[in-house]
Design a protein that fits this description.
There is one protein chain. With 857 residues, the protein is α+β, with helices and mostly antiparallel strands. Helices cover 49% and strands 15% of the residues. The protein is built from 25 helices and 23 strands. A hairpin with a 2-residue loop joins strand 8 and strand 9. The longest helix is centred in the middle third of the chain and has 41 residues, at 325-365.
Length: 857
């Protein structure tokens, strides 16, 4: 019964102050919603082990992650096979390789479709623990050299490309224009390892080489034995790998010096390159949200503390009447409980809404590439609900115990004697000051990081990539391996390939609505991935001291199509094809560089005729390339991406088998240009495919979509932190000053000028600012250093983050100090000294009104 009475009492108090109740509930709701949303995002994308319904987690055995390339390195299957044979902690393990390929029905009129294909060892589905819906999975006999090449289809491809034909098992289809036999169809939603739509068996020779080599690099997935932890397997892997590396020939000795290990065991989800590349940003997001949750707890606790200050005389009377202290604590906890529980329920709905929007954002981000990992479909799980309950309980304890502690620490006799709110202990005063410092520091970190990321995102969206994108259409053109075999770069193979590309270019440029067509391996504004290169005669003693560039392939006569200009030297021409690609390493080829590279690395204007070659840290290098021209600058890779470089080299596509991207400068309507491109492809070769057709503006925007989505989370966090900073700092400063109202009155009664009283509190505020900002800026710099490894932070955003944000907080704290002091100075001293009727009670809407003015003057 007493509990019910306490609940009703707390509810009446909240209903008597509706503005206070709504505000505190809103703060709790947003803080908890951000926490639940971030927990769901990080748990399902990163931290929850991938098990596919089994009892043990899946792990990836992968090479090092090269930040410059934005990707993990595939590893020699020779080592993977030895690990598989010698490990005592693995339940099973399978090798695979992912690629983009084409599939279609058999027949000359069949249309090919782009798919994500996984070349697999026979036991990949056994490791996953999932079997086909129709037909069978791979068997060891399928893997033998000379066996019929077989494939398994995903449910989506079976439905979309083959119309759900139930007689598909045993039939032949085309994969890269090569006949393959279908033996199975997987269940709906299965896309293991990450986004596979078709699985093709690999041969024994590729999977089990007799000796180590630099070719045939693969990836591996394994399932740990029951009771085995990832840490245990990592220790075993390091021991097994060390034993292998000691027996390697000298040409592979570099593998022993790879930072972090040539082979690394990681949670399987972190094998997704885009996820690992942005891992630091995701961790920063977690820290920011936790700081916001802490800010929320401090703010709500302080608001309830201010309520206690208003009711302190009532509390003192109840203590004097013999009400047990634990009963008073419980009564104050009920007020906090009602607010936090209501906020928790609202947070559940708000977080669900955010998850829905995020799934829609993922749909947009991966709509063109289809590269969305199959587990990137979010929903609030039972783990998320339990986390929310735990957060609510934690918030109840923090926000309820702070006011309770304050109420029971006051001078009860002094309060009963004159009702003043100045009866506060020194320890309570120090706690209030510490809370203000914490609020300043936390606000500075959250707002500074949000400013950095938002500033960088805006700069990336407005960046000049050095090309013209208006009336430009882009697409990926694929030539089926079965029809266009490279054969080591034999002249007849190169001629057949180039005849198609340049034939398509000529056919399109004859159309009245097409101005020009060009090919790039990665168009400016896309791609990325940097490598070290060496200038002949100027090699650095340490490999990593050599400069870096983005190296791309282009067609002849490419620059005018994208609005670039040849500034010096010549363009590629037919004479550059005289060298057989198999002799490139001995005779060399030609390269065109961008203006920044010519200006910065050849300041005497002697770039033409110089020779360069690409390097890596494994002792490998390309042939020497002679610089024959200089073109205007363009940016390859998003400007936020750490894989972008200032220097770019361009090679001639005619000599290499890379997949190419087409850009078409057209007139008129985009729909007509798309139709013309599709028809031209069909007319030339039915085995060729064109996909990812979009405007150049959309192409440049695509790589930024994921980062833009993450930045929206930081934007929400920044806005929440802005409100919490304004309201919280004002509330704490006002509360701290209100607690010292008797001290202010005493000083004034003794003749101290009002200016000195104001100066006293300004000095205290400056001291709090100095400590809080020092801590906040230091933490923000540390976090920005972690982020810099995953993205390029715009230099101007540092100015806003490290100067503008602290400046804003300084103004905020000074206003939060001066406004309450000025209000205290307007009250006659005798009123606070108890010689008139009693202390003036400050309505709780005061801090809301003033903090709103601070935010929206």
């Amino acid at each position: 019964m007493s509990a019910w009475i306490d609940i009703r009492y707390a509810a009446r108090l909240l209903l008597k102050k509706p503005l206070f109740t709504l505000t505190t509930t809103a703060i709790v709701t947003v803080g908890l919603a951000l926490t639940l949303y971030t927990f769901t995002l990080m748990q399902q994308l990163v931290f929850k082990p991938l098990t596919l319904g089994q009892d043990t987690p899946l792990v990836a055995i992968a090479g090092e992650f090269k930040t410059a390339h934005g990707a993990r390195q595939r590893v020699d299957p020779y080592h993977l096979n030895q690990i598989q044979a010698d490990s005592m902690l693995l339940q099973n393990m399978s090798l695979y390789e992912s690629a983009v390929r084409t599939v279609g029905r058999q027949g000359n009129e069949a249309i090919s479709h782009k798919v994500h294909l996984t070349y697999a060892q026979w036991d990949l589905f056994e490791v996953a623990g999932v079997q086909p819906l129709l037909g069978r999975s791979f068997s060891p006999s399928d893997q033998q050299d000379g066996a019929q090449s077989v494939v398994v289809l995903s449910h989506d491809i079976w439905q979309r490309v083959f119309d759900g034909d139930e007689t598909i098992i045993g039939r032949m289809i085309q994969v890269e224009a090569i006949p393959k036999q279908v033996i199975g169809v997987m269940p709906p939603g299965f896309a293991f390892p990450t986004r596979a739509q078709v699985w093709q068996i690999m041969t024994q020779t590729r999977l089990e080489p007799a000796n180590p080599s630099n070719r045939g690099a693969l990836q591996a997935v394994a399932r740990l034995k029951p009771g085995v932890t990832l840490t245990q397997f990592q220790h075993e892997l390091a021991t097994l790998l060390q034993r292998q590396l000691q027996a390697l020939p000298q040409e592979f000795a570099w593998r022993a010096d790879v930072a972090g290990g040539y082979l690394q065991a990681i949670p399987f989800k972190l094998s997704v390159d885009v996820l690992y590349q942005h891992y630091a940003i995701l961790v920063a997001m977690i820290l920011v949200v936790l700081l916001i949750l802490l800010l929320t707890c401090i703010n709500v606790g302080n608001l309830l503390l201010a309520r206690v200050n208003e009711q302190i005389r009532d509390v003192a009377i109840r203590v004097a009447l013999g009400v047990p202290q634990h009963r008073l604590v419980l009564q104050m906890l009920w007020e906090s409980t009602l607010i936090c529980c209501l906020g928790g329920l609202l947070a559940l709905g708000l977080a669900h809404w955010g998850i829905v929007l995020t799934n829609l954002a993922f749909d947009e981000i991966f709509a063109m590439s289809g590269a969305r990992p199959f587990w990137w479909t979010l929903s609030i799980s039972s783990d998320g609900v339990w986390m929310l309950i735990l957060a609510v309980v934690m918030m109840i304890v923090i926000t309820g115990l702070i006011p309770a502690w304050r109420a029971l620490q006051g001078d009860i006799n002094g309060i009963l004697r004159d009702g003043t709110r100045g009866a506060v202990s020194k320890r309570a005063g120090r706690v209030n000051q510490a809370l203000v410092v914490a609020e300043i520091a936390l606000s500075c970190v959250v707002l500074a990081i949000a400013a950095m990321l938002l500033g960088s995102s805006l700069a990336a969206q407005q960046a000049d990539y050095g090309v013209q994108t208006e009336h430009r259409l882009t697409a990926s053109v694929r030539l089926a391996w079965g029809s266009y075999r490279w054969n080591g770069g034999a002249p007849e193979a190169r001629k057949k390939r180039n005849d198609f590309y340049y034939g398509l270019k000529a056919k399109l440029e004859q159309l009245p609505q097409v101005n020009s067509v060009a090919y790039f391996s990665s168009l400016p504004g896309t791609g990325g991935g940097t490598s070290h290169f060496e200038i002949q005669g100027r090699a650095e003693a340490v490999f990593s001291d050599n400069p870096m560039w983005n190296f791309e392939l282009v067609s002849r006569d490419a620059w005018r199509t994208v609005g670039m200009q040849l500034l010096e030297g010549r363009d590629f021409n037919l004479s550059d094809l005289a060298v057989d690609s198999r002799e490139l390493r001995e005779q060399g080829s030609v390269v065109i560089i961008n203006a920044a590279m010519a200006r910065e690395l050849f300041p005497q204007g002697n770039a033409l005729g110089q020779r360069v070659r690409t390097l890596n840290g494994e002792g490998w290098h390309t042939e020497w390339r002679t610089i024959v021209g200089v073109v205007s600058d363009s940016v390859h890779g998003p400007t936020m991406d750490a894989t972008s470089a200032r220097h770019t080299g361009y090679g001639l596509m005619d000599l290499r088998p890379w997949r190419m991207n087409l850009v078409m400068h057209y007139r008129g309507e985009q729909a007509q240009a798309i139709a013309a491109l599709r028809q031209a492809i069909v007319d030339l070769d039915a085995d060729a495919t064109v996909h990812d057709i979009q405007s150049y503006q959309s192409l440049i925007k695509q790589p930024l979509l994921l980062m833009a989505s993450l930045n929206q989370i930081f934007l929400v966090g920044g806005l929440v932190a802005l409100f919490l900073a304004a309201s919280g700092i004002y509330a704490m400063a006002a509360n701290s000053i209100a607690l010292r109202s008797q001290e202010i009155a005493t000083r004034r009664a003794l003749g101290v000028p009002e200016g000195q009283v104001v100066l006293l509190f300004v000095r205290q505020a400056l001291w709090q600012l100095a400590v809080g900002l020092t801590l906040g800026i230091g933490a923000a710099l540390w976090l920005s250093a972690q982020l810099a490894g995953a993205m390029n932070i715009d230099p101007n955003s540092y100015v806003w983050a490290l100067l503008g944000i602290p400046g804003f907080i300084v103004i905020l704290v000074l206003l939060a100090t001066l406004l309450p002091v000025s209000r205290q100075l307007q009250v006659p001293p005798l009123r606070h000294l108890g010689r008139v009727s009693g202390p003036r009670q400050v309505d709780m809407s005061d801090w809301i009104r003033h903090s709103t003015v601070l935010l929206f003057p």
